[in-house]
Specification:
The protein is of the alpha/beta class. It folds into 4 domains: 96 residues, Rieske [2Fe-2S] iron-sulphur domain (Rieske Iron-sulfur Protein, 3-layer Sandwich), CATH 2.102.10; 180 residues, FAD/NAD(P)-binding domain, CATH 3.50.50; 110 residues, FAD/NAD(P)-binding domain (3-Layer(bba) Sandwich); 63 residues, 2-Layer Sandwich (Enolase-like, domain 1), CATH 3.30.390. The chain has a 6-stranded antiparallel sheet, with no helix packed on it. A 5-stranded parallel sheet has the order 13-12-11-17-29, with helices on one face. It has a 5-stranded parallel sheet with strand order 19-26-20-21-22, with helices on one face. The longest helix is centred in the C-terminal third of the chain and has 15 residues. The two termini are 39 Å apart. This is FAD-dependent oxidoreductase.
Length: 508
Amino acid sequence: MADQKPDFSAGIPAAALDQGAIVAGTVDGEAVVLVRHQGKVCAVSGECTHLGAPLETGIVASGELRCPWHHARFALATGEAVGAPAMEPLSCYDVVEEDGTVRVTGKRGVRQPEEVQSRGGPILIVGGGAAGHACADMLARAGQGGRVTLLSADRDAPYDRTFCSKQYLAGKKERADCLLPEPGQGEGAPVAIRTGVEVASIDLERRIVTTGDGEDIAYDTLILATGAEPTRPDIEGLDHPNARLLRTLADADGLIAAADTAKHVAIMGASFIGLEVAASLVQRKLSVTVIAQDDIPLAAILGPEAGRFVQSLHEDKGVRFQLGRTIARYDGTVATLDDGSTVEADLLVIGVGVEPRVDLAEKAGIVLATEEEGGGIRVDETMATSAETIFAIGDVANYPDPRLGHRIRVEHWVHAQRQGQYLARRLLGETNEGFGDTPFFWSGHYDVSLRYVGHVASPDDRRVEGAVEQGEFAIFFREDGEEQALLTGKRDIEALDVEAAWDRPASA
Protein backbone atom coordinates (compact mmCIF):
# COMPACT_ATOMS: atom_id res chain seq x y z
CA MET A 1 0.00 0.00 0.00
CA ALA A 2 1.24 3.48 -0.88
CA ASP A 3 0.53 4.87 2.60
CA GLN A 4 2.14 1.97 4.49
CA LYS A 5 4.64 3.23 7.04
CA PRO A 6 8.22 1.96 6.92
CA ASP A 7 9.59 -0.60 9.34
CA PHE A 8 12.38 1.25 11.13
CA SER A 9 13.91 -2.05 12.23
CA ALA A 10 14.76 -2.69 8.59
CA GLY A 11 16.07 0.85 8.23
CA ILE A 12 15.36 3.86 6.05
CA PRO A 13 17.71 6.01 3.95
CA ALA A 14 19.41 8.62 6.11
CA ALA A 15 18.76 11.15 3.35
CA ALA A 16 15.02 10.79 4.04
CA LEU A 17 15.47 12.31 7.49
CA ASP A 18 15.92 16.07 7.18
CA GLN A 19 16.84 18.22 10.17
CA GLY A 20 13.71 18.85 12.26
CA ALA A 21 11.44 16.69 10.08
CA ILE A 22 9.21 14.06 11.73
CA VAL A 23 9.13 10.70 9.94
CA ALA A 24 6.56 8.10 10.99
CA GLY A 25 7.09 4.35 10.94
CA THR A 26 6.79 1.23 13.06
CA VAL A 27 8.93 -1.02 15.24
CA ASP A 28 7.52 -4.43 16.14
CA GLY A 29 4.10 -3.20 15.04
CA GLU A 30 4.15 -0.12 17.30
CA ALA A 31 4.00 3.46 16.02
CA VAL A 32 7.38 5.23 16.22
CA VAL A 33 8.62 8.59 14.94
CA LEU A 34 12.16 9.59 14.01
CA VAL A 35 13.47 13.15 14.31
CA ARG A 36 16.93 14.42 13.45
CA HIS A 37 17.69 17.06 16.06
CA GLN A 38 21.01 18.86 16.52
CA GLY A 39 22.83 16.20 14.51
CA LYS A 40 21.38 13.26 16.44
CA VAL A 41 18.53 10.96 15.42
CA CYS A 42 15.92 10.53 18.16
CA ALA A 43 13.33 7.74 18.10
CA VAL A 44 10.25 7.84 20.34
CA SER A 45 6.80 6.28 20.34
CA GLY A 46 4.53 7.88 17.79
CA GLU A 47 1.30 8.40 19.73
CA CYS A 48 0.69 11.06 22.34
CA THR A 49 0.24 9.56 25.80
CA HIS A 50 -2.63 11.96 26.51
CA LEU A 51 -5.28 10.87 23.98
CA GLY A 52 -3.32 9.07 21.28
CA ALA A 53 -2.78 11.78 18.69
CA PRO A 54 -0.38 10.86 15.85
CA LEU A 55 2.76 12.80 16.68
CA GLU A 56 4.03 12.86 13.09
CA THR A 57 1.39 15.55 12.49
CA GLY A 58 2.89 17.78 15.20
CA ILE A 59 6.01 19.94 15.21
CA VAL A 60 9.48 20.07 16.75
CA ALA A 61 10.31 23.22 18.72
CA SER A 62 13.04 23.94 21.28
CA GLY A 63 14.02 20.29 21.50
CA GLU A 64 10.45 19.22 22.11
CA LEU A 65 7.97 17.17 20.11
CA ARG A 66 4.63 18.99 20.32
CA CYS A 67 1.28 17.23 19.89
CA PRO A 68 -1.14 18.65 17.28
CA TRP A 69 -4.36 17.91 19.19
CA HIS A 70 -3.92 19.31 22.69
CA HIS A 71 -0.39 20.74 22.49
CA ALA A 72 1.30 18.32 24.90
CA ARG A 73 5.10 18.53 24.82
CA PHE A 74 7.72 15.78 25.03
CA ALA A 75 11.49 16.10 25.35
CA LEU A 76 12.98 14.48 22.24
CA ALA A 77 16.09 13.28 24.05
CA THR A 78 14.29 11.47 26.89
CA GLY A 79 10.64 11.10 25.90
CA GLU A 80 9.65 12.85 29.14
CA ALA A 81 6.29 14.64 29.11
CA VAL A 82 7.47 18.17 29.87
CA GLY A 83 4.28 20.06 29.03
CA ALA A 84 0.67 19.22 29.91
CA PRO A 85 -1.82 17.79 29.22
CA ALA A 86 0.29 14.65 28.76
CA MET A 87 1.85 13.32 31.97
CA GLU A 88 3.22 9.93 30.96
CA PRO A 89 6.43 9.74 28.91
CA LEU A 90 6.97 8.43 25.41
CA SER A 91 8.98 5.24 25.00
CA CYS A 92 12.48 5.79 23.62
CA TYR A 93 14.31 3.60 21.08
CA ASP A 94 17.97 3.02 20.27
CA VAL A 95 19.07 4.14 16.82
CA VAL A 96 22.08 3.29 14.64
CA GLU A 97 23.07 5.46 11.67
CA GLU A 98 25.69 3.96 9.36
CA ASP A 99 26.36 3.45 5.65
CA GLY A 100 23.61 5.92 4.71
CA THR A 101 20.93 4.05 6.65
CA VAL A 102 19.07 4.88 9.86
CA ARG A 103 17.87 1.81 11.74
CA VAL A 104 16.07 1.36 15.07
CA THR A 105 17.59 -1.51 17.04
CA GLY A 106 15.08 -1.80 19.86
CA LYS A 107 13.17 -0.16 22.67
CA ARG A 108 15.13 1.12 25.62
CA GLY A 109 14.40 -0.29 29.04
CA VAL A 110 12.35 1.71 31.49
CA ARG A 111 14.60 4.10 33.38
CA GLN A 112 14.95 3.06 36.99
CA PRO A 113 14.21 5.84 39.47
CA GLU A 114 17.21 7.20 41.29
CA GLU A 115 17.42 7.63 45.04
CA VAL A 116 16.97 11.34 45.65
CA GLN A 117 17.38 13.12 48.95
CA SER A 118 14.55 15.30 50.22
CA ARG A 119 15.48 18.93 49.55
CA GLY A 120 13.46 20.78 52.16
CA GLY A 121 10.41 20.92 54.38
CA PRO A 122 6.81 19.92 53.74
CA ILE A 123 4.98 21.24 50.69
CA LEU A 124 1.20 21.47 51.09
CA ILE A 125 -1.03 21.80 48.02
CA VAL A 126 -4.67 22.83 48.55
CA GLY A 127 -6.70 21.68 45.56
CA GLY A 128 -6.62 18.50 43.48
CA GLY A 129 -7.57 19.93 40.11
CA ALA A 130 -5.40 20.58 37.06
CA ALA A 131 -2.85 22.89 38.69
CA GLY A 132 -2.50 21.09 42.01
CA HIS A 133 -2.16 17.64 40.48
CA ALA A 134 0.35 18.79 37.83
CA CYS A 135 2.50 20.49 40.45
CA ALA A 136 2.47 17.40 42.67
CA ASP A 137 3.29 15.18 39.69
CA MET A 138 6.32 17.23 38.65
CA LEU A 139 7.64 17.39 42.22
CA ALA A 140 7.21 13.63 42.58
CA ARG A 141 8.98 12.96 39.27
CA ALA A 142 11.98 14.81 40.75
CA GLY A 143 11.99 12.51 43.76
CA GLN A 144 10.33 15.00 46.11
CA GLY A 145 6.94 13.28 46.43
CA GLY A 146 7.60 12.39 50.05
CA ARG A 147 7.55 16.09 50.93
CA VAL A 148 4.19 16.72 49.28
CA THR A 149 0.68 16.48 50.69
CA LEU A 150 -2.26 17.30 48.43
CA LEU A 151 -5.57 18.17 50.10
CA SER A 152 -8.65 18.03 47.91
CA ALA A 153 -12.19 18.91 48.93
CA ASP A 154 -13.36 16.59 46.16
CA ARG A 155 -14.08 13.05 47.30
CA ASP A 156 -12.64 11.57 44.11
CA ALA A 157 -8.96 11.14 43.39
CA PRO A 158 -7.66 13.77 40.92
CA TYR A 159 -9.33 13.44 37.52
CA ASP A 160 -9.40 15.16 34.14
CA ARG A 161 -12.19 17.70 34.46
CA THR A 162 -12.43 18.13 30.68
CA PHE A 163 -13.84 14.58 30.46
CA CYS A 164 -16.83 15.60 32.60
CA SER A 165 -18.46 17.65 29.83
CA LYS A 166 -16.98 15.75 26.89
CA GLN A 167 -15.94 12.08 26.70
CA TYR A 168 -17.49 10.78 29.94
CA LEU A 169 -20.76 12.69 29.63
CA ALA A 170 -21.10 11.66 25.97
CA GLY A 171 -20.67 7.99 26.93
CA LYS A 172 -17.39 7.56 25.01
CA LYS A 173 -15.26 6.93 28.12
CA GLU A 174 -15.80 5.08 31.37
CA ARG A 175 -15.57 6.74 34.75
CA ALA A 176 -12.19 5.16 35.46
CA ASP A 177 -10.82 6.72 32.26
CA CYS A 178 -11.29 10.17 33.80
CA LEU A 179 -8.72 9.61 36.54
CA LEU A 180 -5.35 11.31 36.17
CA PRO A 181 -2.11 9.32 36.53
CA GLU A 182 -0.69 8.88 39.99
CA PRO A 183 1.62 11.87 40.68
CA GLY A 184 5.18 10.86 39.87
CA GLN A 185 3.96 7.68 38.12
CA GLY A 186 5.69 5.45 40.63
CA GLU A 187 9.04 7.27 40.71
CA GLY A 188 10.30 7.66 44.27
CA ALA A 189 8.23 8.32 47.35
CA PRO A 190 4.53 8.88 46.61
CA VAL A 191 2.59 12.08 47.18
CA ALA A 192 0.15 11.90 50.09
CA ILE A 193 -3.26 12.59 48.53
CA ARG A 194 -6.12 13.22 50.93
CA THR A 195 -9.57 13.60 49.40
CA GLY A 196 -12.72 14.96 50.99
CA VAL A 197 -10.69 17.46 53.05
CA GLU A 198 -11.88 21.07 53.27
CA VAL A 199 -9.35 23.65 54.42
CA ALA A 200 -11.01 26.23 56.68
CA SER A 201 -8.19 28.66 57.48
CA ILE A 202 -4.51 29.54 57.15
CA ASP A 203 -2.33 30.74 60.02
CA LEU A 204 0.40 32.72 58.27
CA GLU A 205 2.61 33.20 61.33
CA ARG A 206 2.59 29.56 62.47
CA ARG A 207 2.54 28.23 58.88
CA ILE A 208 -0.38 25.96 59.58
CA VAL A 209 -3.65 25.27 57.79
CA THR A 210 -6.68 24.09 59.73
CA THR A 211 -9.18 21.75 58.11
CA GLY A 212 -12.94 21.86 58.51
CA ASP A 213 -12.59 19.01 61.00
CA GLY A 214 -10.20 21.04 63.14
CA GLU A 215 -6.99 19.28 62.14
CA ASP A 216 -3.84 21.41 61.99
CA ILE A 217 -1.38 20.67 59.17
CA ALA A 218 2.02 22.36 59.04
CA TYR A 219 3.76 23.53 55.88
CA ASP A 220 6.99 25.15 54.78
CA THR A 221 5.56 25.92 51.34
CA LEU A 222 1.83 26.34 50.74
CA ILE A 223 0.36 26.21 47.23
CA LEU A 224 -3.20 27.42 46.73
CA ALA A 225 -4.80 25.68 43.75
CA THR A 226 -8.38 26.22 44.88
CA GLY A 227 -9.75 26.74 41.36
CA ALA A 228 -13.17 28.14 40.61
CA GLU A 229 -16.78 27.24 41.29
CA PRO A 230 -19.83 27.46 39.01
CA THR A 231 -22.20 30.39 39.31
CA ARG A 232 -25.85 29.62 40.11
CA PRO A 233 -27.97 32.70 39.27
CA ASP A 234 -30.59 33.86 41.76
CA ILE A 235 -33.59 32.83 39.68
CA GLU A 236 -36.77 31.20 40.93
CA GLY A 237 -36.59 27.41 40.65
CA LEU A 238 -32.87 27.00 40.03
CA ASP A 239 -32.65 25.15 43.35
CA HIS A 240 -34.94 22.44 41.94
CA PRO A 241 -33.36 18.94 41.87
CA ASN A 242 -33.75 18.88 38.08
CA ALA A 243 -31.55 22.00 37.77
CA ARG A 244 -27.93 20.91 37.78
CA LEU A 245 -24.43 22.34 37.62
CA LEU A 246 -21.46 20.56 36.06
CA ARG A 247 -18.03 21.01 37.59
CA THR A 248 -17.03 17.80 39.34
CA LEU A 249 -16.94 14.13 38.41
CA ALA A 250 -19.76 13.58 40.90
CA ASP A 251 -21.76 16.26 39.07
CA ALA A 252 -21.17 14.34 35.82
CA ASP A 253 -22.33 11.11 37.52
CA GLY A 254 -25.56 12.81 38.56
CA LEU A 255 -26.12 14.33 35.15
CA ILE A 256 -25.60 10.99 33.42
CA ALA A 257 -28.10 9.36 35.78
CA ALA A 258 -30.61 12.15 35.18
CA ALA A 259 -30.11 11.91 31.41
CA ASP A 260 -31.18 8.26 31.52
CA THR A 261 -34.76 9.29 32.36
CA ALA A 262 -34.94 12.82 30.92
CA LYS A 263 -36.32 13.58 27.47
CA HIS A 264 -35.97 17.35 27.09
CA VAL A 265 -32.90 19.24 28.27
CA ALA A 266 -32.44 22.99 28.52
CA ILE A 267 -28.94 24.41 28.73
CA MET A 268 -28.75 27.79 30.47
CA GLY A 269 -25.85 29.63 28.86
CA ALA A 270 -24.05 29.28 25.52
CA SER A 271 -20.64 28.99 27.22
CA PHE A 272 -18.01 26.46 26.17
CA ILE A 273 -19.11 24.05 28.88
CA GLY A 274 -22.78 24.67 28.07
CA LEU A 275 -22.27 23.84 24.40
CA GLU A 276 -20.05 20.84 25.19
CA VAL A 277 -22.81 19.52 27.45
CA ALA A 278 -25.31 20.12 24.66
CA ALA A 279 -23.17 18.09 22.25
CA SER A 280 -22.73 15.27 24.76
CA LEU A 281 -26.44 15.04 25.60
CA VAL A 282 -27.48 15.13 21.94
CA GLN A 283 -25.23 12.10 21.49
CA ARG A 284 -27.26 10.49 24.28
CA LYS A 285 -30.35 11.03 22.07
CA LEU A 286 -31.92 13.79 24.19
CA SER A 287 -33.77 16.81 22.85
CA VAL A 288 -31.63 19.87 23.68
CA THR A 289 -32.40 23.59 23.73
CA VAL A 290 -29.76 26.22 24.55
CA ILE A 291 -31.05 29.40 26.19
CA ALA A 292 -28.68 32.36 26.30
CA GLN A 293 -28.61 36.14 26.47
CA ASP A 294 -26.09 36.22 23.62
CA ASP A 295 -27.23 37.04 20.11
CA ILE A 296 -24.51 34.70 18.78
CA PRO A 297 -23.00 31.91 20.91
CA LEU A 298 -19.37 32.52 22.00
CA ALA A 299 -19.14 35.72 19.93
CA ALA A 300 -17.85 37.64 22.96
CA ILE A 301 -14.79 35.34 22.98
CA LEU A 302 -14.35 34.05 19.42
CA GLY A 303 -16.04 36.75 17.36
CA PRO A 304 -19.30 36.46 15.38
CA GLU A 305 -17.90 34.44 12.45
CA ALA A 306 -16.69 31.56 14.64
CA GLY A 307 -19.71 31.91 16.91
CA ARG A 308 -22.11 31.40 14.00
CA PHE A 309 -20.02 28.46 12.81
CA VAL A 310 -20.24 26.74 16.21
CA GLN A 311 -23.98 27.43 16.36
CA SER A 312 -24.43 25.83 12.93
CA LEU A 313 -22.57 22.70 14.07
CA HIS A 314 -25.05 22.25 16.89
CA GLU A 315 -28.13 23.11 14.83
CA ASP A 316 -27.07 20.50 12.26
CA LYS A 317 -27.24 17.93 15.09
CA GLY A 318 -30.70 19.07 16.18
CA VAL A 319 -29.88 21.50 18.99
CA ARG A 320 -32.33 24.41 19.18
CA PHE A 321 -31.32 27.89 20.33
CA GLN A 322 -33.31 30.53 22.17
CA LEU A 323 -30.93 33.49 21.91
CA GLY A 324 -31.30 36.97 23.36
CA ARG A 325 -33.37 35.39 26.12
CA THR A 326 -33.01 34.62 29.83
CA ILE A 327 -34.81 32.19 32.11
CA ALA A 328 -37.30 33.92 34.42
CA ARG A 329 -38.27 30.81 36.39
CA TYR A 330 -38.10 27.02 36.33
CA ASP A 331 -40.51 24.50 37.85
CA GLY A 332 -38.71 21.23 37.15
CA THR A 333 -40.45 20.50 33.86
CA VAL A 334 -40.72 23.86 32.08
CA ALA A 335 -38.39 26.86 31.82
CA THR A 336 -40.30 30.13 31.43
CA LEU A 337 -38.31 32.77 29.56
CA ASP A 338 -38.26 36.53 30.07
CA ASP A 339 -40.62 37.08 27.14
CA GLY A 340 -43.20 34.67 28.58
CA SER A 341 -42.45 31.84 26.17
CA THR A 342 -41.67 28.38 27.56
CA VAL A 343 -39.20 25.60 26.90
CA GLU A 344 -39.99 22.03 27.91
CA ALA A 345 -37.18 20.80 30.17
CA ASP A 346 -37.30 17.91 32.60
CA LEU A 347 -33.56 18.57 33.02
CA LEU A 348 -31.87 21.97 33.19
CA VAL A 349 -28.08 22.37 33.08
CA ILE A 350 -26.67 25.69 34.25
CA GLY A 351 -23.54 26.84 32.43
CA VAL A 352 -23.17 30.58 32.90
CA GLY A 353 -19.62 30.82 34.15
CA VAL A 354 -17.49 30.37 37.26
CA GLU A 355 -15.96 32.51 40.03
CA PRO A 356 -12.47 32.00 41.50
CA ARG A 357 -12.40 30.48 44.98
CA VAL A 358 -10.66 33.20 46.98
CA ASP A 359 -12.37 32.91 50.38
CA LEU A 360 -9.50 31.00 52.00
CA ALA A 361 -6.88 33.50 50.82
CA GLU A 362 -9.05 36.50 51.62
CA LYS A 363 -9.64 35.36 55.23
CA ALA A 364 -5.87 34.94 55.66
CA GLY A 365 -5.24 38.51 54.50
CA ILE A 366 -3.53 37.51 51.25
CA VAL A 367 -3.80 40.27 48.63
CA LEU A 368 -6.45 39.69 45.95
CA ALA A 369 -6.54 41.09 42.43
CA THR A 370 -9.07 43.80 41.70
CA GLU A 371 -12.18 43.20 39.63
CA GLU A 372 -10.66 45.35 36.88
CA GLU A 373 -7.58 43.07 36.87
CA GLY A 374 -9.80 39.99 36.54
CA GLY A 375 -10.19 38.91 40.16
CA GLY A 376 -8.52 35.96 41.86
CA ILE A 377 -5.38 35.92 44.00
CA ARG A 378 -2.70 38.42 43.03
CA VAL A 379 0.65 36.75 42.32
CA ASP A 380 3.96 37.88 40.84
CA GLU A 381 5.73 36.38 37.82
CA THR A 382 6.87 33.40 39.98
CA MET A 383 3.28 32.70 41.16
CA ALA A 384 4.15 33.98 44.65
CA THR A 385 1.38 35.65 46.66
CA SER A 386 1.78 38.56 49.07
CA ALA A 387 2.33 36.05 51.91
CA GLU A 388 5.77 34.54 52.43
CA THR A 389 6.20 30.97 51.08
CA ILE A 390 2.62 30.89 49.76
CA PHE A 391 1.94 30.52 46.02
CA ALA A 392 -1.23 30.41 43.93
CA ILE A 393 -1.73 28.58 40.62
CA GLY A 394 -4.52 27.69 38.22
CA ASP A 395 -7.90 29.35 37.74
CA VAL A 396 -7.48 31.35 40.97
CA ALA A 397 -4.11 32.93 40.06
CA ASN A 398 -3.96 36.44 38.62
CA TYR A 399 -0.47 36.91 37.20
CA PRO A 400 1.47 39.42 35.04
CA ASP A 401 1.67 38.09 31.49
CA PRO A 402 5.11 38.99 30.06
CA ARG A 403 3.93 39.18 26.45
CA LEU A 404 0.77 41.19 27.02
CA GLY A 405 2.38 43.46 29.60
CA HIS A 406 -0.55 43.34 32.01
CA ARG A 407 -2.26 41.03 34.47
CA ILE A 408 -4.56 38.21 33.39
CA ARG A 409 -6.42 35.36 35.04
CA VAL A 410 -7.02 32.37 32.78
CA GLU A 411 -9.56 29.56 33.24
CA HIS A 412 -8.07 26.92 30.92
CA TRP A 413 -7.30 23.34 31.95
CA VAL A 414 -3.93 23.04 30.18
CA HIS A 415 -2.79 26.49 31.30
CA ALA A 416 -3.55 25.59 34.91
CA GLN A 417 -1.53 22.39 34.53
CA ARG A 418 1.40 24.29 33.06
CA GLN A 419 1.34 26.78 35.91
CA GLY A 420 1.58 23.82 38.30
CA GLN A 421 4.46 22.33 36.34
CA TYR A 422 6.25 25.69 36.18
CA LEU A 423 5.95 26.23 39.94
CA ALA A 424 7.31 22.75 40.63
CA ARG A 425 10.34 23.49 38.45
CA ARG A 426 10.79 26.83 40.18
CA LEU A 427 10.71 25.21 43.62
CA LEU A 428 13.19 22.57 42.41
CA GLY A 429 15.58 25.27 41.21
CA GLU A 430 15.29 24.17 37.58
CA THR A 431 14.30 27.61 36.26
CA ASN A 432 14.93 31.22 37.19
CA GLU A 433 12.49 32.54 34.60
CA GLY A 434 9.09 33.92 35.45
CA PHE A 435 6.03 32.04 34.16
CA GLY A 436 5.60 32.77 30.47
CA ASP A 437 3.69 29.92 28.79
CA THR A 438 1.16 31.06 26.22
CA PRO A 439 -2.44 30.27 27.23
CA PHE A 440 -4.03 27.48 25.19
CA PHE A 441 -7.35 25.65 25.15
CA TRP A 442 -9.31 23.44 22.82
CA SER A 443 -13.05 22.99 22.48
CA GLY A 444 -14.69 19.96 20.88
CA HIS A 445 -18.08 20.06 19.15
CA TYR A 446 -18.99 16.65 17.70
CA ASP A 447 -16.22 15.85 15.19
CA VAL A 448 -14.90 19.44 15.07
CA SER A 449 -12.14 20.72 17.34
CA LEU A 450 -11.12 24.34 17.73
CA ARG A 451 -7.72 25.46 19.08
CA TYR A 452 -7.22 28.82 20.77
CA VAL A 453 -3.73 30.13 21.50
CA GLY A 454 -2.99 33.34 23.41
CA HIS A 455 -5.28 35.75 25.22
CA VAL A 456 -7.21 38.95 24.47
CA ALA A 457 -9.85 40.77 26.45
CA SER A 458 -12.07 41.29 23.39
CA PRO A 459 -12.36 39.74 19.90
CA ASP A 460 -13.42 43.02 18.27
CA ASP A 461 -10.09 43.70 16.53
CA ARG A 462 -9.52 40.59 14.42
CA ARG A 463 -8.24 39.33 11.08
CA VAL A 464 -9.96 36.36 9.43
CA GLU A 465 -8.23 33.94 7.07
CA GLY A 466 -9.87 30.98 5.33
CA ALA A 467 -13.47 29.85 5.15
CA VAL A 468 -14.93 29.91 8.66
CA GLU A 469 -18.28 28.53 7.52
CA GLN A 470 -16.47 25.46 6.17
CA GLY A 471 -14.43 24.97 9.34
CA GLU A 472 -10.99 25.66 7.83
CA PHE A 473 -9.74 28.98 9.14
CA ALA A 474 -7.44 31.10 11.27
CA ILE A 475 -8.68 34.16 13.16
CA PHE A 476 -6.03 36.44 14.62
CA PHE A 477 -7.09 38.72 17.47
CA ARG A 478 -5.29 41.97 18.25
CA GLU A 479 -4.81 43.89 21.46
CA ASP A 480 -3.40 47.42 21.23
CA GLY A 481 -2.64 46.74 17.58
CA GLU A 482 -0.58 43.57 18.23
CA GLU A 483 -1.75 40.06 17.39
CA GLN A 484 -2.08 38.32 20.74
CA ALA A 485 -4.42 35.38 20.15
CA LEU A 486 -5.28 32.89 17.42
CA LEU A 487 -8.29 30.66 16.86
CA THR A 488 -7.95 27.86 14.31
CA GLY A 489 -10.03 25.18 12.68
CA LYS A 490 -8.21 22.45 10.74
CA ARG A 491 -4.96 24.41 10.97
CA ASP A 492 -3.22 22.52 13.76
CA ILE A 493 0.34 23.18 12.58
CA GLU A 494 -0.29 26.92 12.38
CA ALA A 495 -1.63 26.91 15.95
CA LEU A 496 1.45 25.00 17.16
CA ASP A 497 3.86 27.27 15.30
CA VAL A 498 2.27 30.43 16.70
CA GLU A 499 2.26 29.05 20.23
CA ALA A 500 5.93 28.11 19.97
CA ALA A 501 6.80 31.57 18.68
CA TRP A 502 4.88 33.28 21.48
CA ASP A 503 6.12 31.08 24.31
CA ARG A 504 8.68 32.40 26.70
CA PRO A 505 11.30 29.74 27.60
CA ALA A 506 9.90 28.72 30.98
CA SER A 507 9.37 25.01 30.30
CA ALA A 508 11.70 22.05 30.02
